[in-house]
Design a protein that fits this description.
With about 325 residues, this protein is α+β, with helices and mostly antiparallel strands. About 25% of the residues lie in helices and about 20% in strands. The protein is built from six helices and twelve strands. The strands form two sheets. It has a nine-stranded antiparallel β-sheet with strand order 3-5-7-6-11-12-10-9-8, sandwiched between helices. Strands 2-1-4 form a three-stranded antiparallel β-sheet, with no helix packed on it. It binds zinc ion (3 copies). One zinc ion binds near residues 174, 217 and 268.
């Protein structure tokens, strides 16, 4: 049974999940479990959400209070789902037409709504792992959603920073960044649409890290319901640039939404892309300074990377 454990040195929870080690790394017998006609993929569908067969977190475990001053270890209560993007095994984000893009984003919203309401859930993290170079076990394009009983540390840090600026200057950190970039006609902007902007942030940790910011101050996909197609289009634009630029398209995309518990008026929903390359084909490894100190050395300037990504399409 997977468990969560508290690391008192870092003040954060980890998930211990030995069962997942036995999951298949590639399709077995050349049968893709996400292609239509498999046991779990019968019937008519365009986008399909399945329970993760190798869940790190499960709603079958009993929820328990994650008060780290009392309990340091407990069953990994939560949920873990997979969103299969398309019936077509080879259709990736960059290949989709508007209709499919909209269906995929609508499904991300629907699953978010469902898990956001689950009792005992503190955070719903939606993400996509893409490419064998990031260890993706199945090629068929899919996203993942995990509902976690605690707020992940990266989100905690962003929350704390957002709250600080909100309290001291009554501004939102992302609204401020969007305004500054927009006003200055920044060299870091990749694309602007009516409601969104994609850019390599001033503070990017990775050479080709791209963030997508809604121009309106919204906290989750729920408030973006009317703009899901446009959001999907700017995601597709980003992924297309990566597909053109890198020899292998390999990245992690994460939706940074507000937590499922508490009030966070200062939170600004956004999407972050972390490609694993330092240039077109050389892998970026996290070395001693990154892993040992959590200090990132960016091998390129965000301005130069944004220029390369702008010019590739
Ligand atoms: Zn498939
Ligand atoms: Zn904002
Ligand atoms: Zn973020």
């Amino acid at each position: 049974m997977s468990r969560v454990r508290f690391n008192p040195m870092l003040g954060e929870w980890i998930i211990v999940t030995k069962e997942r080690a036995s999951r298949p790394f590639q399709e077995q017998d050349h049968k893709c479990p996400f292609c239509p006609g498999q046991p779990e993929t019968q019937g008519n569908w365009d986008v399909l959400t399945l329970d993760n067969k190798f869940p790190a977190l499960s709603p079958d475990f009993p929820p328990f209070p994650l008060d780290s001053s009392i309990i340091m270890d407990g069953p990994a209560y939560g949920a873990s789902k997979v969103i299969v993007y398309s019936r077509d095994h080879n259709e990736q984000f960059e290949d989709m037409d508007d209709k499919q893009i909209q269906l995929v984003l609508q499904e991300y919203l629907r699953v978010f709504r469902e898990l956001d309401k689950l009792k005992g859930i503190a955070y719903v993290l939606e993400f996509e792992n893409r490419g064998q170079a990031v260890g993706v076990s199945l090629d068929h394009a899919h996203g993942q959603v995990i509902a976690i009983p605690f707020i992940p540390p990266r989100i905690e840090r962003e929350l704390a920073q957002s709250r600080k600026l909100w309290e001291s200057e009554s501004t939102c950190i992302v609204c401020k960044a969007v305004e500054n970039e927009f006003k200055s006609g920044s060299p870091r902007i990749i694309k602007q649409t009516k409601h969104f902007m994609s850019l390599v942030p001033f503070y990017a940790r990775l050479p080709y890290e791209v963030h997508i910011y809604p121009r309106k101050h919204v906290a989750s996909l729920i408030e973006l319901e009317d703009h899901l197609l446009e959001l999907g289009q700017i995601i597709r634009d980003t992924v297309k640039r990566y597909a053109e630029f890198f020899e292998e398209n390999a990245y992690v995309m994460a939706f940074h939404t507000r937590p499922s518990v508490g009030e966070h008026p200062y939170w600004h929903f956004h999407i972050e892309f972390y490609p694993i390359w330092r240039d077109r084909k050389t892998r970026k490894y996290l070395g001693g300074i990154e892993t040992g100190g959590w200090t990132y050395m960016n091998d390129s300037t965000p301005e130069e990377s944004a220029k390369e990504l702008r010019e590739v399409v």
